[in-house]
Amino acid sequence: MSFTNLGLSEPLLKAIKEQGYTTPTPIQKQAIPVIIQNKDILAAAQTGTGKTAGFTLPLLERLAQNKPNMNKYQIRALVLTPTRELAAQVAESIKVYGKYTPFTSTVIFGGVGIHPQLAAIRKGVDIVIATPGRLLDIASQKGIDFSKLECLILDEADRMLDMGFIHDIKKLMKLMPQKRQTLLFSATFSPEIKVLAAGLLKDPALVEVARENTTADQISQVVHFVDKTRKKELLSQLIKTKKWQQVLVFTRTKHGANRLTTQLEESGILAAAIHGNKSQGARTKALADFKEKKIRVLVATDIAARGIDIDQLPHVVNYELPNVPEDYVHRIGRTGRAGKEGEAVSLVCVDEHKLLADIEKFIKAPIKKVEIPAFAPDPSIKAEPIQNGRGKNNQRSTSRQGSNRGGIASQHSKSTRSGSAKKSNYRENKR
């Protein structure tokens, strides 16, 4: 099957061809025709399956089917995402595929000035891509009008729930017309997602292209056991001896990301860190430099796990395992995208053996263990509790309170908004 069989118009097909794509992915084959027919959809797809194009292409096609008269501040479509990086990624997809269409779009998130975003909406846009907290800020200032909204898309809905955005989402829903198309995309059909979907979707079509909680088959996964104090040394050796030119490395904490970046730079490896305490400008530059291969290593916390989209990224390293098994899937999903092969390496110390077991149970498969004799762990070292990271019992508190540590909220977070909306804005700016 080719894209010409999916009901897409010539302007979109031309843009797809320019990107070098000829065959749609499974999620695109299933989702695009359904969305064009104006049906609600509940879709579960692993990251890297072409999901973003799976909803941006039919969204653009749908908007072309009618051209209503729009007043000031009114928008026709809204895409909600959990992170700034993911919002920027979706915005870029809409820009690329909408190249030959007349539709305008803008992206909205915290951490940058709110006034240019208000001005962009005031000029008139068809599509807004936003994170929930900042959008709620703008809505509270009557800076956006949802009354003509035709389509709402929730991308990475499970991640939004994990990050505590459910109350912001519900407040936004009350501002939207009941008669609209709603598309919900999630990595899995968890019980929480099913509850959310039941309240948002009307007789949705179900689309699932991968078994729940699995990792992509084209990703080669391996574990190297190593003492915690020797992880940096092992990582540096792997990068140098294997001549890795583009490596995404995950740590559990912002401080750990900064420290590892400095250590890599000291060993002669160009690196940059990306996490919630970095300014939006710094995050954007680091990601751009990494994509352009101006730096070899990008060190990230889990906030970036679902927002980094790099064509043919070859290597992902778990410098520290995540506390939550789901995050392992999303981390390594940055490689092996769109059918390309990738490698995921995890450096595991004695403190993390339980985390590794939880991950293997979650993905329903053992991960290959490869011993590197020169870095064999010292058996006399005993495991110590892991204090940092996002745990299952504190996901909500982490997402709401973690923003108070070491960062500056935007000016607008000092506004007179009440209660949870104000908290949401502050949390949003930290992302």
Main sheet characteristics: 7 strands, parallel
Query: What is the β-strand count?
Result: 14
Q: Give the CATH class of the largest domain.
A: Alpha Beta
Give the topology string: H per helix, E per strand: HHEHEHEHEHEHHEHEEHEHEHEEHEHEHH
Structural domain tally: 2
Structural class: alpha/beta
Could you tell me the mean pLDDT?
84
Count helical runs. Answer: 16
Assign an overall shape. Answer: globular
N-to-C terminal Cα separation, in Å?
39 Å
CATH topology of the largest domain: Rossmann fold
Side by side, the strands of the main sheet go: 3-4-2-5-6-1-7
Helical amount: 25-40%
Uncertain residue ranges: 389-431
Supply Rg: 22 Å
Please report which band the strand proportion falls in: under 5%, 5-15%, 15-25%, 25-35%, 35-45% or over 45%: 5-15%
In CATH terms, what is the architecture of the largest domain? 3-Layer(aba) Sandwich
Q: How would you characterize the overall build of this protein?
A:
The chain has 431 residues and is α/β, with parallel strands linked by helices. The chain folds into two domains: 3-208, P-loop containing nucleotide triphosphate hydrolases (Rossmann fold, 3-Layer(aba) Sandwich); 219-375, P-loop containing nucleotide triphosphate hydrolases (Rossmann fold, 3-Layer(aba) Sandwich), CATH 3.40.50. Helix content is 38%, strand content 14%. It has 16 helices and 14 strands. It has a seven-stranded parallel beta sheet, sandwiched between helices. Strands 10-11-9-12-13-8-14 form a seven-stranded parallel beta sheet, with helices on both faces. Helix 3 (51-64) crosses helix 4 (84-97) and helix 6 (132-140) crosses helix 8. The longest helix is centred in the first third of the chain and has 14 residues, at 51-64. The chain is globular. Residues 389-431 have low confidence and may be disordered.
